[in-house]
Every structure is written in C-alpha cells, then in structure tokens.
Write a structure and sequence with these properties.
This protein has 149 residues and is α+β, with helices and mostly antiparallel strands. The chain contains four helices and six strands; from the N terminus they run E-H-H-H-E-E-H-E-E-E. It has one domain. Strands 1-2-3-6-4-5 form a six-stranded mixed beta sheet. It starts with a strand and ends with a strand.
Length: 149
Amino acid sequence: MILLDTSETLKKILLFLPSEHPLRSLAMELAPLNNSGYAGADSSAERILASNQAFWPGGVGILGGQEFQDKPQRAILFWLEESIRQDQQDQTNPSGSRQLVLNIAPGRYRVEYWGADSRGPMGVEIATGPTLVLGPPKAERLVAFLRRA
C-alpha cells in the first residue's frame, strides 16, 4: 500500500469525479482538515489505516479524519487506485485479498464506493467499528465515502 498526501489525494479525486458530482465539494471541505499538504503520508492517514493488517494493491489517499478516531466527524473520503500488476499481486498477496482495515471511533458506518461514471454508488457496505474491514469492489480507481450510519 502506498499512502498519498493530502494535495495529491485532492487532485486525483477532483480529476476523477465529474464536475457536477456532490463528493467534489465534500473533498474541498475535508482537505484542510488533514494535518498537512506536504509530500509523504499525512498523520491522519497513518492513524486511521492499519496498514500492517491490510492489503491494497496500490495507492490510498484520505481526506478528513484527523479527529475521526476521537470524536464524530461527518465524513472521510478515500481515493483508492490499483497500481500493482496482477503478477506482482500474486507474489506479494497469494490470497488475492483486497481490503482496508481502519482504526476509527466505535460506531456504525456506511461506506459508498463511487466510480468515475457512477450516477449512484457502485457498492455500499454497512460496517461496525472501532475496527472496520472494508472490501471495495473491483475497480482500477474509485472514491470511497465513509460516514456514520
């Protein structure tokens, strides 16, 4: 898994989603809540993602979530992109699992997965924390929208 910084995550989400998509304005609202925009993973991403317990075959970026572990926040957006070729995945991850493990505040959450051409979510999960295991649908690139259910 490759953690992306705030500015790179915001850029990728804005270029990916159509101009009228409602998650674009949420991305602009959540980006300043991250700790920084400097190169390298932001500390909010490092706190939320339990990277030693997950396998995602590529880049992951997070907008929002700085305070999500300690108190309710309205949402987190994830940018997910697969950038590891299938033959590399087979070597590093023989089971072929594609999941993210999140450490967030206890509660019940709704996760929507959005593709570039989606008029609605391409997948929805309801998960219960404090440890959430997400299994995004197969897609090269997508945006995941996490909020309290």
